[in-house]
Amino acid sequence: MMWKQLGRAFAIGTIAATMSTNIALADQHANQHKDKAGMPPMDANAQASMMAEMEKMGKPGPEHKMLEAQAGKWTTVTKSWMGGPEPAVSNGKAEYELILGGRFLMARFHDTMMGQPFEGFSITGYDRMAKSYNGYWIDTMSTGVYPMNGGTWDEATKSMTFNVEWPNPMGSGTMPYKMVTKFNGPDSMVFLMTMAHEGKDMPLTEVEA
Fold first, then answer.
1. What residues form DSSP beta bridges with 131?
2. Which of 6, 47, 122, 172 is most buried, with most CB under 10 Å away?
3. Cα-flanking dihedrals φ and ψ of residue 31, to 5°?
4. What proportion of the chain, given as a percentage, has pLDDT over 90?
């Protein structure tokens, strides 16, 4: 009985595969005719130009030097404002590593938050097509994945800025946050995260490294 069932299943599968192949070939044939009637095939020069541009966009550029500047091991001092006038202060460490041929910066952050061990992880890169810094952040205080898109670099102030919309910790919906990393030379940087509140930027977290 089992072999009969297997044989029947095999026959049905063969018929289905044959029908799928015939449909795919018909679609391919129709698309070939569509291409001939509509858009002409790309010539060799245009194809080579397109491939060269794709290769260029896929390699790290000068914008990735700003990511490279963060690579290494850092000791950190974190100030966290939890609603009171004075921030809570803690000491931690951060490890930044360039990955995938220098295209992205992977960071791990270890500290304490509200008396509990805290760990955060981020990936940041520069998208040469979109012309912006992008990435995401995750940590042990949440199960969410927080995107960071549209980041910019200001050469005059040596700072990288992200303006994001993340969940509102005091209610539903989202609210704007601003994250600025300022470089004070090769061995010092300061990260400041603020939240818009009543028309002002209210500090949430400051990390000196």
1. none
2. 122
3. -65, -35
4. 57
Q: How far apart are CA 5 and CA 166, in angstroms?
A: 54
pLDDT tens across 138-151, in order? 999 999 999 999 99
Query: pLDDT tens digit string along 123-133?
Result: 999 999 999 99
> What pLDDT, on the 0 to 100 scale, is given for residue 13?
42
Distance between CA atoms of 123 and 108, rounded to whole angstroms?
Answer: 9
The tokens of 153 are what? 């670099």
Mean pLDDT, rounded, for 87-107: 96
- DSSP designation for 40: P
Which tokens in the block code for residue 85?
């006038």
Measured CA to CA, the distance from residue 111 to residue 118 in angstroms comes to: 5
- Least Cα distance to 70 among 109, 12, 24 occurs for 109
Distance CA 44, CA 51 (A): 11
Write down the pLDDT at residue 34: 46
Q: Which residue type sits at 141? A: M
How many CB atoms lie under 10 A from the CB of residue 19?
10
pTM: 0.73
Closest Cα partner for 197 from 63, 83, 91?
Answer: 83
- 1 three-state secondary structure: coil
Closest CA to 206 of 198, 189, 40: 189
